[in-house]
# Entry
Amino acid sequence: EDDWRTFYALMHSLAFIQGVHAWPYRIEYFRRGQKITDKITATRKLGSTVYVPFHLMDQHFREVILKAVEFFLRADTLSDEVARISFLFRSAGNKNEITTLALCVLFESLVRLLFKHLNLSEVMSAQDESLKLFEKAKEEICSQISEQITDKGKGYERLLKYIKTAQLFSTEKMFQAVSIKFGWKWETDMQEIFNIWKSLRNPLAHGHERSNQSEDERKQDLLNESRIAGVINMLILKLIGY
# Structure
């Protein structure tokens, strides 16, 4: 079992670093001179992306492989989810707006995953007094609205549900927390990427018209897509300790 875990941790690592699903067609497994397994898998077209952090001949390749294998060997929720996001990142391929929307969703998913599993909510709450004040204000307003529902009806009931679902941490706050965790300056590094992410995601996710884009606008979107993909790779590299 340990051998298989190590083998698939290596497959996850190779796939992430080279941007192509690691899909061995045949696996021969020997232990102490005895063949344990001879497994054949059907061939298929492999998902791939042009947005790769390293190439095979890069001088850092061996170091990153070792760190990535160590990370994926943990086989905990965080490492498993990162492997899944990395797989979907490659599966998105190069399919124009489909890829753009997929990268935007995966970028946000990765940030939220890191925010949760690195316990950044506790760090942010300790540093920002306004977060505690927000929770207090939310409770007070909900209490006041609840008292009005009987007299003023469904409108107030709907408003109460809306306020109850208000999150303590906005998406921007989560991006900011992850940026600080990995030693990046929010104002000069991640804030611009966050704004780029919003400018790409919102039109695609909310049905804004994009069919009349100019050539320059399409080129800018492609550049912005590559920058988001680059930060996805950077976040994973930081996470594995590179």
Observations:
- The mean pLDDT is 86.
